[in-house]
Amino acid sequence: MDYTAKLDEALSRLHEEGRYRTFIDIERRKGQFPHATWRKSDGSDTPITVWCGNDYLGMGQHPAVLAAMHEAIDATGAGSGGTRNISGTTVYHKRLEAELADLHGKDAALVFSSAYIANDATLSTLPKLFPGLIIYSDELNHASMIEGIKRNGGAKRIFRHNDVAHLRDLLAADDPCAPKLIAFESVYSMDGDFGPIAEICDLADEFGALTYLDEVHAVGMYGPRGGGVAERDNLAHRIDVINGTLGKAFGVFGGYIAASTRMCDAIRSYAPGFIFTTSIPPAVAAGAAASIAHLKTDSAIRERHQTQARILKARLKAMGLPIIDHGSHIVPVIVGDPKHTKALSDMLLDGYGIYVQPINFPTVPRGTERLRFTPSPVHGARETDTLIRALDALWSHCALNRQELSA
Ligand SMILES: Cc1ncc(COP(=O)(O)O)c(C=O)c1O
């Protein structure tokens, strides 16, 4: 086989569809979020404002987080030195897991290298623990859940997005004695809509199913202590496994599940994605624990976050832009074409120093390509004004020049 030709073929398919992903090299500036520097391919630097980050609350620059990380590095060095099983379980990991269990009101928590790995490892392991398990998965679940469910070789049913009637039909059609698990998200990151947690828990009770909730885009941001939407709605006790990330609102890195002691013990003992990999660095665990502890008491930052999102949505709506608004902190503006979306993103970056990554298929369905803005407490009036002015100028320009953009 001509391997090089095959690679070229695969890449040119992406170029032709306008789906080829380009990353921009940025250097974030501690103390100045959301401002950063864009290092261009010619080596020059340009100041930019990041409008698509997932450090939703700016905790990546919080003094309490940085102090905990510095302290841990000075005390214990760089890496953990092992897998969790072989010398890589440190006091920092245990402290972080205790913080997480407390956050979600669960008996235990398990930290993984990322929430992606936590989803993949847990969902692919559950059928080993519950032979014959059927997993009911929302059609818009994140790739990490889909991969875990696919890889486990067990039975799966996909229900239409947030459609509890469809979920009910699927549950009712299966053997009442079969073990079952419903996997879904609390905030879907591309549209910013909420999962129907209470209704799904009701169905789980009725059909004897376990519940698995990905709160990656909610932890830190929703609930009186940042325990997510399930905490906000007083439903955490009805969820068997909560999945979350330490890399978005908590501003650091890593992922986890929180569940019963027995569930965590079983996953710890059977999941290859937990067992056969080096544990996260102690300083990362220390920073994440400090961030969680801080956010348990800082409701003001959560309110500022929601206020920034409301302001941006109101201003975009006033301009007549096609935004999706489900009342969450995520602000998608639908462009509806991959080339136009990329062109708009390029023009915002080149002309205005505004960085918002285009979101294309397969992350979102074709025809719904979008710019996804993530306002945060560190985006103030100055940043919002600049963004609104730029979008105002470019949106009308783009509407008049669709052919030019398509060229
Ligand atoms: C819904 C959802 N779950 C899980 C993940 C994975 O999180 P992490 O970045 O910690 O791997 C993401 C990622 O971005 C996500 O959007």
From TrEMBL:
<keyword id="KW-0012">Acyltransferase</keyword>
<dbReference type="GO" id="GO:0006782">
    <property type="term" value="P:protoporphyrinogen IX biosynthetic process"/>
</dbReference>
<dbReference type="InterPro" id="IPR050087">
    <property type="entry name" value="AON_synthase_class-II"/>
</dbReference>
<dbReference type="GO" id="GO:0030170">
    <property type="term" value="F:pyridoxal phosphate binding"/>
</dbReference>
<keyword id="KW-0350">Heme biosynthesis</keyword>
<comment type="similarity">
    <text>Belongs to the class-II pyridoxal-phosphate-dependent aminotransferase family.</text>
</comment>
<protein>
    <recommendedName>
        <fullName>5-aminolevulinate synthase</fullName>
        <ecNumber>2.3.1.37</ecNumber>
    </recommendedName>
</protein>
<dbReference type="InterPro" id="IPR015424">
    <property type="entry name" value="PyrdxlP-dep_Trfase"/>
</dbReference>
<dbReference type="InterPro" id="IPR015421">
    <property type="entry name" value="PyrdxlP-dep_Trfase_major"/>
</dbReference>
<keyword id="KW-0663">Pyridoxal phosphate</keyword>
<dbReference type="InterPro" id="IPR015422">
    <property type="entry name" value="PyrdxlP-dep_Trfase_small"/>
</dbReference>
<dbReference type="Pfam" id="PF00155">
    <property type="entry name" value="Aminotran_1_2"/>
</dbReference>
<dbReference type="GO" id="GO:0003870">
    <property type="term" value="F:5-aminolevulinate synthase activity"/>
</dbReference>
<dbReference type="InterPro" id="IPR010961">
    <property type="entry name" value="4pyrrol_synth_NH2levulA_synth"/>
</dbReference>
<dbReference type="InterPro" id="IPR001917">
    <property type="entry name" value="Aminotrans_II_pyridoxalP_BS"/>
</dbReference>
<comment type="pathway">
    <text>Porphyrin-containing compound metabolism; protoporphyrin-IX biosynthesis; 5-aminolevulinate from glycine: step 1/1.</text>
</comment>
<keyword id="KW-0808">Transferase</keyword>
<feature type="domain" description="Aminotransferase class I/classII large">
    <location>
        <begin position="48"/>
        <end position="391"/>
    </location>
</feature>
<dbReference type="InterPro" id="IPR004839">
    <property type="entry name" value="Aminotransferase_I/II_large"/>
</dbReference>
<comment type="subunit">
    <text>Homodimer.</text>
</comment>
